[in-house]
Specification:
Elements (H helix, E strand, L loop, with lengths): L1 H20 L7 E5 L10 H15 L2 E5 L7 H4 L4 E5 L8 H12 L3 E5 L10 H7 L2 E4 L4 E7 L13 E6 L3 E3 L6 E6 L14 E8 L2 E6 L11 H15 L34 E6 L5 E5 L3 E6 L4 E7 L18 E6 L3 H4 L1 E6 L6 E10 L2 E14 L9 E6 L5 E5 L45 E7 L5 E2 L17 E4 L4 E6 L5 E5 L1
Parallel strand pairs: 1-2, 1-3, 3-4, 4-11
Antiparallel strand pairs: 5-8, 6-7, 6-9, 9-10, 10-11, 12-13, 13-14, 14-15, 16-17, 17-18, 18-19, 20-21, 21-22, 22-23, 22-24, 25-26
Length: 506
Amino acid sequence: MKKVFTLLLLACLVILFHSCTHQRSGKPKVLVFSKTAGFRHSSISVGKLAIIKLGEQTNFEVDTTENADWFTDDTLKKYSTVIFLSTTENVLDYRQEAAFERYIQSGGGFVGIHAATDTEYDWGWYVRLVGASFDSHPEQQEAKLLVVDRENIATKHLPAVWVRKDEWYNFTKLNPDVKVLIKIDEKSYKGGTNGDNHPMAWYHDYDGGRAFYTELGHTEESYADPLYLKHLLGGIQYAIGKNEELDYSKAKTQLPPDEDRFVKNVLVQGEFFEPTEMTILPNFDIIVIQRRGEVLLYKNDTKKLKTAGRLDVYFKTKVNTDVNAEEGLLGIAKDPNFKKNNYVYVFYSPADTSVNRLSRFEFKNDSLINSSEKIILQFYSQREICCHTGGSVAFGPDGLLYLSTGDNSTPFDEPNQQYVNHGYAPLNDEPGHEQYDARRTAGNSNDLRGKILRLKIKEDGSYEIPDGNLYTKGTAKTKPEIYVQGDRNPYRISVDQKNSFYIGVK
């Protein structure tokens, strides 16, 4: 009886242990993803076979695909790690990106091989996950690799100086939080641009998951090299971790809704002239502003558009009539407590003075009350030039007001000049050429142009500086209203429920 009881107790302890650790049953499974939208490496096919063989030798299962439709919660949760094998350029759509973020946040693993850094340049989350973005490479050649971590599972078998031939990447956007395993000695080959701190392999815990990257693996010969294969295996084993079930309750990224959940409903058509921004009132009436000064109101009950006011704005050049000015009535947002106070906030260019102005107005009885204007903030704007006014107003869930402002500079090539910007930042600081110098605005910490401003509006229409803005109040040669600096033309912004904001440029 005691023996039976002991066996039952041991069985219960084993079950309890596995339930506490949430370890998967069976072998770990990894997914090798090798979709390419740019250059395709000939080593991909031998790389897949090599990883399958590593799995057979070390007890993990391998699936391979180039089908991005596999990137869903239901599919990804089967895998302990996902390997990006020399993927290139944009390989996932926005829904698949969200699913992969959720996978990592739930405890998943990631391994990036070689061109995984030549992938998804515009997806900031991924760039931080993989640890860098590809910049350039010289011709393939032999070089010295310096193993800086001799204890890690992916490098402890390697010589301190590892001499091998491969294609050596130069990087941008290196994530400073990664733990570097291998560096390359730029003095040992031609074409390196990252200097003494030029990493080639690294790992880090990231956003709830584990990520390993090795730059090595361009050549087909790599996947027959025992030293390289053991290095890659160590990275895969790190990414697999304890082979635990994923916990999707920890996923922060929300899945975008299906397109068929949205229905396009045309409310009004053909009755606008350069509308710039709108705000939806609690009763679902919609205030629409137009650049040349009109304030329009769409009535939800009658389904009709009517005039609700007008501001006298500067919206076209008067001297240089061939220049396309962008000033005018630019932005509007209702107060978070509009039901109680009837306030709207408007950003506009008054006709009588060279400023762009943020003001608060009352909106009552379907009309903008001009006499109720309370000027909150204004700043100089150079006129009779093109372009870049920005001009969006938005409130965050924290009740703070965000305002986007353009750099008030001309982005086009300056006529009759030897050196021009070719669409990059205009930087001509010669006297009389100010409109072609964005350093005076977007690059100037003491100027409100070319910025995102963040304000805490008080009941009387004045404002305070919230904690967390870019410059602390009182810092010399700065404006404490600045939240983001260095913008070109942040034309439209929105703030989500996590207080993250999004910028649309024009």
